[in-house]
Amino acid sequence: MTFDQLMALVSEKDTQTLQFPESWTQGRTAFGGLSCAFALQSMLLHCHDERTLRSFSAQFVGPLAPDEPFTLSFNLLREGKNSSQYAATITQDNHVCLTVQGLFAKDRHSVVEVPYARMQGKPTPNAENCLPFVQGVMPNFFQYVDLNLVSGGMPYSGSTSTNLSGWMRFKAQTHNYNWTHLIALIDSWPPSQLQVFPVPAPASSMSWHVECLHLPELGTEQWVGVDITTTAAHNGYAYEDATLYTESGDVIAQSKQTVALFA
């Protein structure tokens, strides 16, 4: 199933039962961007006016197994005149796997106006230089994404750098980008610290926050750029910042993630 087909499974129900195939896993659990996208899609379907996603926060609590039913629960936290706070939880076998909170708000007039940042001097995407999908070596979900690494090293290459940049998009995408595509794509890159590991070892995202600045119209074939910087790594935990931007250089989102390192 493609990403868009999986998102089409989500309905406006406050509580629903879903499942996903093993081809969308990362190790023993769902690819984190997919589980977050399920939760976000539920929120988007409950938002019926011009309120748009402003921020998104997730806590990865436990693994979400493939080919087994899980429960996606939506909860309205507050509905104000201009903004709404939503929450969503994914549980499986009576265990919480993911909790997510989203802030949706209308545009409003303000005397403060700072233009969106722009990225300068970025190389163009190269579809011939994407990370390969190797069965049993790469995460299963890699078969659905194009990840064009521009700078930084491959995982487990013993690199001295903990930063990376590149371009990303879904293969076989049928709908123009919405925030579910972008949230999933941000998390499709391996933690940038894995390039330092001399041999394969696990790492796991624990918490994640995304500031959703704006979403321009992006067609299905367009690439989204990302720059990832490790701000600190101590005592088995790393903290990384990411910036997302369009092919024309418009910054569209900022991400912060806490990662547990097992090497």
Summarize the structure.
The chain is mostly beta strands and 263 residues long.
Structure in words:
The chain is mostly beta strands and 263 residues long. The protein has one domain (3-106, 119-261): Acyl-CoA thioesterase, double hotdog domain (Porin, Beta Barrel), CATH 2.40.160.210. It contains 3 helices and 13 strands. The chain has helices at residues 3-7, 32-46, 179-186, and strands at residues 15-18, 25-26, 29-30, 52-60, 70-79, 83-92, 95-105, 145-151, 164-170, 203-212, 224-234, 237-246, 251-261. The strands form 2 sheets. An 11-stranded antiparallel beta sheet has the order 1-5-6-7-4-10-13-12-11-9-8. It has a two-stranded antiparallel ribbon with strand order 2-3. A hairpin with a 2-residue loop joins strand 6 and strand 7. Helix 2 (32-46) runs antiparallel to helix 3 (179-186). The longest helix is centred in the N-terminal third of the chain and has 15 residues, at 32-46. The radius of gyration is 18 Å and the shape is globular.
Outline the fold blueprint.
Elements lengths: L2 H5 L7 E4 L6 E2 L2 E2 L1 H15 L5 E9 L9 E10 L3 E10 L2 E11 L39 E7 L12 E7 L8 H8 L16 E10 L11 E11 L2 E10 L4 E11 L2
Antiparallel strand pairs: 1-5, 2-3, 4-7, 4-10, 5-6, 6-7, 8-9, 9-11, 10-13, 11-12, 12-13
The fourth-level CATH homologous superfamily is: Acyl-CoA thioesterase, double hotdog domain
**What is the CATH topology classification name?**
Porin
Global mean pLDDT: 94
Strand content: 35-45%
The share of residues in helices is 10-25%
Radius of gyration: 18 Å
Distance between the termini: 33 Å
What's the oligomerization state? single chain
- The residue ranges in which pLDDT falls below 50 over 5 or more consecutive positions are none
- Describe the global form: globular
SSE pattern:
HEEEHEEEEEEHEEEE
Assign the CATH class. Mainly Beta
